[in-house]
């Protein structure tokens, strides 16, 4: 490890080497090789590329490498999930499972929603005190969102506006390039 540095400035080199040796002696030989290897070790980290680490800094680095190795080993020992293993059964279908929007009884669309609920899938609605719970998609299909226009209708209108704007922009670009509108 010390040979990887161009110069060391220890006050007492023998004591410094002994302290580094005492720190490294606490770890497994594989970890010592990894920590002192010029390609993967502490001298390859940005902080210690220029100056030798102090014994305390080396200990912190070794502890971090040991913790990482331990964590990887524990992860490697974990059981791999079996995709063919039995899974929990799907929950029983219950009335109102898919109902997530509350329509109060004083809402102007309440009657329309109640009429729809008489023939609808029971999972899409459930009665409650003061109103009825229904699925958002049901409200969209009934035209109860955005003033009676379904979300799919709004999406279609928006897409058409975008297409028209793009066509207009392309036409203007061609005219600016010197083409006549009839040649486009």
Task: Give a structural overview.
With 184 residues, the chain is mainly alpha-helical. It folds into 3 domains: 76 residues, no CATH class; 55 residues, no CATH class; 35 residues. Helices cover 46% and strands 7% of the residues. It contains 6 helices and 3 strands; from the N terminus they run αααβαββαα. Strands 1-3-2 form a 3-stranded antiparallel sheet. α1 packs parallel to α3. It is elongated. The model has no long low-confidence stretch (mean pLDDT 82).
Q: In sequence order, what are the helices and strands, one letter per element? A: HHHEHEEHH
The number of E-state strands comes to 3
Structural class by helix and strand composition: mainly alpha
Low-confidence runs of at least 5 consecutive residues: none
Computed over alpha carbons, the radius of gyration is 36 Å
Q: Secondary structure elements and their pairing?
A:
Elements lengths: L12 H12 L4 H8 L18 H23 L23 E4 L5 H8 L7 E4 L2 E4 L1 H7 L8 H26 L8
Helix pairs in contact: 1-3
Key features of this structure:
184 residues, mainly alpha, 3 domains, 7% strand
């Amino acid at each position: 490890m010390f040979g990887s540095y161009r110069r060391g400035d220890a006050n007492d080199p023998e004591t410094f080497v002994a302290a580094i040796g005492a720190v490294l002696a606490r770890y497994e030989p594989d970890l010592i090789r990894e920590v002192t290897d010029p390609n993967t070790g502490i001298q390859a980290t940005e902080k210690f590329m220029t100056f030798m680490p102090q014994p305390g800094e080396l200990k912190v680095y070794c502890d971090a490498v040991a913790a990482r190795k331990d964590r990887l080993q524990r992860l490697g020992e974990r059981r791999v999930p079996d995709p063919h293993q039995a899974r929990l059964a799907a929950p029983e279908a219950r009335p109102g499972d898919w109902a997530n929007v509350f329509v109060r009884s004083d809402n102007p669309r309440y009657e329309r929603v109640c009429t729809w609920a008489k023939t609808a899938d029971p999972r899409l609605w459930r009665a409650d005190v003061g109103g009825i719970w229904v699925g958002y998609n049901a409200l969209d299909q009934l035209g109860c969102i955005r003033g009676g226009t379904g979300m799919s209708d709004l999406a279609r209108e928006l897409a058409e506006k975008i297409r028209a704007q793009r066509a207009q922009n392309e036409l203007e670009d061609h005219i600016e390039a010197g083409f006549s509108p009839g040649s486009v």
